[in-house]
Every structure is written in C-alpha cells, then in structure tokens.
Amino acid sequence: MDWAGWALFGLVATTALTAALVAAQLAGLTRLDFPLVLGTVVTEDPDRARIVGFLMHLGIGQGFALGYAATFALLHRATWWIGALLGAVHVGIALTVILPLLPGVHPRMASPRAGPASTAVLEPPGLFAVNYGVQTPTVAVVVHILYGAVLGLLLDAT
C-alpha cells in the first residue's frame, strides 16, 4: 500500500474537498458549514469551532483516504474513475446514513422532533442534507467525487 502517498495525498484531497465546500457555501450554493458542524461538537464558540472542525475534518478525511488507499491496493489499480466511483459511494452513505443520524449524537444540533423548548443552535441536516439548501446534495456529490478522483490520480495502488 502507498503509505507515503496516503499520508500526503489524503491531506491534499481532504483540503481540496473542504475548500470546495467552503467556497460553495460562500457562493450561496449551500448553507452547510461542515467545519462549523463538526467543531460545535466540542465547543460553543463558532470561530473556534470552525478551526477545530477543520482539523477534525482533516483527521476524518485521512481515515477515509486510508480506506480508499486500501481499496486501490486490493484492486491493484488506482485510477481517477475508480476514485470517483468510491467518492460516489462515500457521499451516498454520508447523505443517507451519517448526516441524518448526526442530530442523535451532536450536543448542539436540534433533532427533527425538537420542540419549541429546544436550545440547539444548529438545525438538523435531514435526508440528503436538504435542510441546508436544495443544492446541498449536488454540492456534496461533486466535492466527494472530486475527493475520490484526486486520490485515484495521486495514490499508487502497489
């Protein structure tokens, strides 16, 4: 397996994915601020949460990059299109399983069943994260396919 490639290119791909998500948010394509969502798990301060969340996202991205690298090693082949396909599977699971479950474990996120007494500061993403805007699923798909394609291009399958 390409350990050096995983260590470096996992960071490159995750940084590219996070930068694309932030750019999409700033362009008004989505209201999803994933570094904020992750960071508010550990701190209430939104400025500090974005920094902590970015670092958390880098760590999570490294974990996923390890899975991609292992898959390429098992297939004895790493290409942009295999990486893009893995990215599509990755985002499918994220949008349909992980994000809808997040309100159950996030201390500052309302659940879909939260009543008026809720003090949560983040709204739940909902299925496909559409609560953060109707273009959010498209943005998520594009950036995760980009993530996988970058890893497929840069990682060595051996």
Description:
By secondary structure, the chain is an all-alpha fold. The protein is 64% helix and 0% strand. The protein is built from 5 helices and no strands. The protein has helices at 3-26, 34-39, 46-75, 80-101, 136-154. Helix 1 (3-26) crosses helix 3. The termini are close together.
Topology:
Layout: H1 3-26, H2 34-39, H3 46-75, H4 80-101, H5 136-154
Helix pairs in contact: 1-3, 1-5, 4-5
Determine the mean pLDDT: 91
Name the structural class: mainly alpha
Distance between the termini: 5 Å
Oligomer: single chain
List unreliable stretches of 5+ residues. none
Strand content: under 5%
Total of helices:
5
What's the number of domains?
1
Largest sheet: none
Order of helices and strands: HHHHH
Shape: elongated
Protein name: DUF2938 family protein
Keywords: Membrane, Transmembrane, Transmembrane helix
Offer a concise description of the structure:
The protein has 158 residues and is mainly α.
Summary tags:
5 helices; 0% strand; 158 residues
